[in-house]
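2.7 Reproducibility. Because tokenized structures are sensitive to small changes in the input, we list the exact sequence used for TRAP transporter small permease protein, including any N-terminal residues retained from the expression construct. No trimming or masking was applied before prediction.
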Amino acid sequence: MNFIEWAVVGVCRVLLWISTTVIFVILVANTVLRYATGTSLQWANEVPELLFPWLVMSGVVLAAAHGAHITTSFLMDAVPPALRRWASIGSWLVVAVLYGTLARATYQMLVIVHDEKSPILQVPGSLTYGCVMGGLVMLALLALKSAWNAWATPQVPSPPDTETAVPEAHW
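Resulting structure tokens (single pass, no recycling of outputs):
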């Protein structure tokens, strides 16, 4: 694992644990208050709504870093071995450009959504969009790393008449 992947995975793990823990603690505390005293925290619904995108984006990036997303490998299996490496490099570069384009579009929207504030805590909407933008940047970095790995890994020819092994599911 290189430094970029290590940093992305580390940041996402911290965000995942913090957001999950804070959401859980707030929901439990609010439930206890509701049943024990008949009242609740005014802001208790707003904070989980603000943290949920951070939870989701960190999970998406972690899944991408661990290769746990659904893949369609039959297309790469159909490509002749001599072209497989170039197809892999090209497809990862296209993915990186698309994530970069989405991150740039999200960045341009930050000014627009910054004026939207949450009702109680007055947190700007740009915080959530910034989370999405950060996740897209990390996904672009991981795609560039995968393109680099495809470039740097020497091609190993497979013997004729061998079937490609189907990877096991990750559950």
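The chain has five helices and no strands.
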